[in-house]
Amino acid sequence: MKTLLKPIPLALWLAGCSLAPNYEQPDVALPQSWMEVAISEQGNAAAPTADTLGWREYFRDPQLQQLISEALAHNHDLKNAALSIEIAEAQYGIQRTDYLPSVNAQGARARSRTPADLTGTGQARIGETWTVGLATSAYELDLYGRVKSLNEKALQTYLATREARDAAQLSIIGAVAKTYYQTRISEAQMALAKDVLQSRQETYRLSKLQFDAGLMTAGDLRGVEAQIESARSSYSEAERSHQQALNALSKLVGKPVSQIQLPPAGDLRNQFADIRLPSGIPSAALQHRPDIREAEYKIKAANGDIGAARAALYPSIALTGNLGFGSTELDRLIKAPNLSWSFTPSINIPIFNRGKLNRAVTISEAQQKILVETYQKAVQTAFYEIADALTARQTLAEQYEAQQRGNSAVSDRLRLENLRFEAGISTALDRLDAQRESYASDQGLLATELQMLTNNVDLYIAMGGGLHEYGVTAPDVAKDTTPAKANKAAPRTKKR
Question: What is the pLDDT of residue 81?
């Protein structure tokens, strides 16, 4: 018995060896600060950062909050991501069992009949045997860390899957919010188009009176009719956009929006909580992005693949053994004289397939390099997403203020043209021209308002907001609920 157990401590000690490369966080070429235009507005220094502010606190609209909650509960992509986590966790649990031998209990009863000609007694004989014992089959001594590398790969794959699920959540929250605002703006566009249609119909009524009195030509009257049809076309376009936005929202939520009891919508002028904008070194802001952490875990998983491929080049030793009792009588089975055991170590030395194994190492190393490039791209993409959102935040505000001043002037012109037309000083076409200019100006304001709303969504999501329903006191950088704690450092950047 002692002889049988001697290799186990040796196997556990050798399991600490590994041929996997040590993980080194890739350098990424990024500026050491945000673009000048992006950092000129830093916001309230006392405000929370995006990653510590829950989505229910950032999005103040109760109707949007309800839609996000429904999407997180029913969205099919998010459900698939959650199921992928369960699969990865189970695979990690399976892989961990390879660290220790798998011991199986076995028991058997066998009956056999020996023909009379073979017994030597002239009579057939019926024999019976009983066996019971424990057995382990082909337990691999992890001499070069193959099992350890595969275990590390399974762990890092699990962690990457969790981050992929978080990234999917952020994507869904952002998509629901932007689609919701598209729905709200399309409603406003429908109302605007309806008002314009009614105004042009009134213009046509007055123009018809002028035509009947001989004060307007038939061509001018037809021009007024054309503008009415143009207004009808604009209303149909806004109605189509609104319905398509509702359909997209239903798809994101996972069920028809019409079946959800929604609270009243909030004022579009008070949709977001204040957040502190990033400044200084960008890596501090990028560490909250789950897509970056996912890419990092995938590199670590690839390192495990490399370690397993390298270990396959070296000899492997497997242990097979059993310990038990055997007897022809059940009541005498567990007796010292009936003890039996066997111990069968085997060694596998790769000789003629080393070329194939070397190519497997080459493939795993190339795959790891691809994931490094993917990680660097993810960091750069995240950086410029935040930089673009910060730039848009400032320029959109300036654009909207300029449009409001222009809209005020256009509205005043329309008011004067209405007075001139009613007094008979100007023609219907002059009034229609002023109406067209006012309509275009109002549409431009709505379009810019939608851009400002979506920009606030983009900035919050790009900076890692949306992972929590309510605020947290510290960034969720290391998650203790994983099978093993992970070191999630900020992306390392180099000056450019």
Answer: 85
Instruction: Please give the C-alpha separations between residue 185 and each of 88, 407, 439, 444, in angstroms, as whole numbers.
Output: 42, 18, 15, 12
Structure tokens at 167: 């990234």
CA–CA dist 411, 434 (Å, integer): 8
More confidently predicted of 121 and 479: 121
pLDDT at 159: 92
Sort strands 28-29 and 493-494 into parallel, antiparallel or unpaired: parallel
Rounded to an integer, the average pLDDT of 166-176 is 92
CA distance 391 to 75: 32
Retrieve residue 282's tokens. 């960008």
Q: CA torsion, points 443, 449, 455, 461, in degrees to nearest 10?
A: -110
Q: Render 45-68 in DSSP notation, one character per residue.
A: TTSPPGGGS-HHHHB--HHHHHHH
The tally of CA atoms less than 13 A away on the side-chain side of residue 207 is 27
Number of H helices, E strands in the chain: 13, 6
Closest CA relative to residue 139, chosen from 348, 345, 349: 345
Instruction: Using DSSP, state whether 20 is helix, strand or coil.
Output: coil
Crossing angle, helix 218-253 and helix 428-462, to 10 degrees? 20
- Say what the pLDDT of residue 185 is: 93
- Per-residue pLDDT tens for 445-461? 999 999 999 999 999 99
Whole-angstrom distance, CA of residue 56 vs CA of residue 475: 17
Contacts of 247 (CB under 8 A, 6+ apart): none
* CA nearest neighbour of 393 among 47, 30, 39: 39
Q: Does residue 339 sit in helix, strand or coil?
A: strand
Whether 190 contacts 348, CB under 8 Å: no
* DSSP secondary structure letters along 393-451: HHHHHHHHHHHHHHHHHHHHHHHHHHHHHHTTSS-HHHHHHHHHHHHHHHHHHHHHHHH
What tokens appear for 171 in the block?
A: 């994507």
User: Can you read off the two tokens belonging to residue 94?
Assistant: 């399976």
Sign of the dihedral defined by the CA atoms of residues 259, 263, 269, 272, in that order: negative
Residue the block writes with tokens 């001018």: 220
pLDDT digits over 190-214, tens only?
888 888 888 778 777 877 777 777 7
